[in-house]
């Protein structure tokens, strides 16, 4: 064997050993981890202590400690599907016009190349690229740092292919189901109702005060009813739900993470809601927990 062939073989063997070591540490069977959809709202929720962020922290104490967290964030849209695969993903400040304290936030959670490879291997509907450039955007860290402030749990992101429809994403998400049995918390981060062009504030000026336009409250209630009824097809074909749906979802980026979460609902799972509130007129913070009953 030539030297370069030997080195290539050794490097591949070493990476495979590391991959197996990580996955071997994850339980093969056992109670499934819950799946979450979190309405993340304003980036300020990442540093403020308020009713939303406080519940995120409380929720983390109520569910099993995950081996890793895989987030589908509304803020990573890509052509094709990619997963972060670096050892230490950077903290991305993908917003503007907020206080310096928000830009100063660093969330130094580790990543996991091994889990990235395993996740990519579970998905057969498309080729999943291993990404070494992205990191953790505010759709991820604003929530996860409130849940796990020690930043000692590996966190990965799976991108949303903006060229595909909701049915495609629903089918892809189902391929991730095995991760629940291995202690991975899968978390969709977006907002059920999200229309920034129609934001309005109550007289108090408080962004997080309960306040919703009639159409926003109507659609949020509609989505909740469909979720409780297990009517996933109506959720997938949200564009058939009337003009209010077009106001609630002017673009699908913040809605599709919900589709990932719902796709992972199993026969043994119960559904519950938390942070069920409309804010700023055209946003809803309503979040979903799916867990074995």
Structural summary, described in words:
This protein is α/β, with parallel strands linked by helices. The protein has one domain (30-292): LigB-like (Protocatechuate 4,5-dioxygenase, Chain B, 3-Layer(aba) Sandwich), CATH 3.40.830.10. 35% of the residues lie in helices and 17% in strands. It contains ten helices and twelve strands. A six-stranded mixed β-sheet has the order 6-2-8-1-12-9, with helices on both faces. It has a two-stranded parallel ribbon with strand order 3-7. A two-stranded parallel sheet has the order 4-5. Helix 1 crosses helix 4, helix 2 (51-62) crosses helix 5 (138-147) and helix 6 runs parallel beside helix 10 (256-263). The protein is globular and about 50 Å long. GO terms for molecular function: ferrous iron binding; stizolobate synthase activity; zinc ion binding. Residues 49-264 form the Extradiol ring-cleavage dioxygenase class III enzyme subunit B domain. It holds the Pfam family LigB. Its cofactor is Zn(2+).
User: Which CATH architecture?
Assistant: 3-Layer(aba) Sandwich
CA distance, first residue to last residue: 56 Å
CATH superfamily: LigB-like
How many strands, which pairing sense, and closed or not: the largest β-sheet?
6 strands, mixed
In short:
This protein is an alpha/beta fold. It contains ten helices and twelve strands.
Write the layout of secondary structure elements.
Layout: H1 3-25, E1 35-39, H2 51-62, E2 68-73, E3 77-78, E4 81-84, H3 100-103, H4 113-122, E5 128-131, H5 138-147, E6 155-157, E7 160-161, H6 166-174, E8 184-190, H7 214-228, H8 232-236, H9 243-248, H10 256-263, E9 269-274, E10 278-279, E11 283-284, E12 287-292
Parallel strand pairs: 1-8, 2-6, 2-8, 3-7, 4-5
Antiparallel strand pairs: 1-12, 9-12, 10-11
Helix pairs in contact: 1-4, 2-5, 6-10
GO molecular function: ferrous iron binding; stizolobate synthase activity; zinc ion binding
Keywords: Dioxygenase, Metal-binding, Oxidoreductase, Zinc
Family: Belongs to the DODA-type extradiol aromatic ring-opening dioxygenase family.
